[in-house]
Design brief:
- It contains eleven helices and eleven strands.
- The protein is an alpha/beta fold.
- Strand 5 and strand 6 form a beta hairpin.
- The N and C termini lie far apart (54 Å).
Length: 354
Amino acid sequence: MEPRQVTIAVDAMGGDFAPRAVVDGSVAAAMEGARVALVGDERQIEGELARRAPSAEVAGRLSIVHADQVVAMEERATAVLKKPGASVRVCAELVKSGVARAMVGAGNTGAAMIAAKQVLGTLPGVDRPALAGVFPNPKGRTVLLDVGAHLGAKPTHLRQFAVMGHFYAQEILGTPAPRVGLLSVGEEEGKGPELVREVYRVLEETGLNFVGNVEGRDVFRGTVDVIVCDGFVGNVVLKTSESLAAYLGSLIQRELTASMRSRLGYGLAKPALDNFRRQTDWAERGAAPLLGVGAGCFIGHGRSSARAIKNAIFRAREFCAAELDSKIRRKVAELHDREARLEALADAQAETVS
């Protein structure tokens, strides 16, 4: 499906700065050719659009779908189960019905995951979806998953994460043969807690380009392209990295403007500083894909700006163009078939021996 013909359902009521930042980001995306269905309180959305006064051409790429309920950031994620008219759930329904091809939201993360799983379902063979974070490295990008969809995982779940991360790196980031690593406290096979040691053995049998254990330092070194871990560890890595990047950016700017001499050089250094910010700012990616559900679902930070929303919409269009959900579905099915054949062969051999 051609990206420009794809409609992305956007939760206009989700996020700390909604609906203004969401509408602004959606208008910015529409100005660059995206088609967006804004989901939420119709009156508020129309008011924000009137403020922006987009041209007729841009307005033609924007539609409004009314939703009379919202799952607030402070509510429990399960509140979405009691609110069938919640904007995030309506987004999922639009995707399920085919009106939209993917959904984007910056509201309650747990509610978005529940809505996506309940309405869109999970891909056959995927027990738990995973949020994929994308980090810069000297050679390109590293995909880390899970970064917070679930705080506990079994070896079979991390195997599925590896498959999904492989295809995301291959199809979206353009890495021909992604190297897959397992996050641990040492590179040796026996390092790490029991879960990690068991996952190591499982990943060896996937047929993926599994290179073994990696450490936290490898997230930004470019030694691997995909790193798998459970959601608790991944979320700590994500939040720590974002905080460190923001701190380094502010520290560099402060030092460059601390004295008359440094301010004289600031103009020359500003392009490099701007490039640093672009590479380390999470808003450049916009949102993290929830891999393993039945269609594209992208979940952003609650504090997402208009720029983050615009970029999230384009990430969702990339996902649709790559038909990533279909490719993950096929690969997971292949893995299950392979495992079933191996299990049947082992049973037959055991019967022969007995």
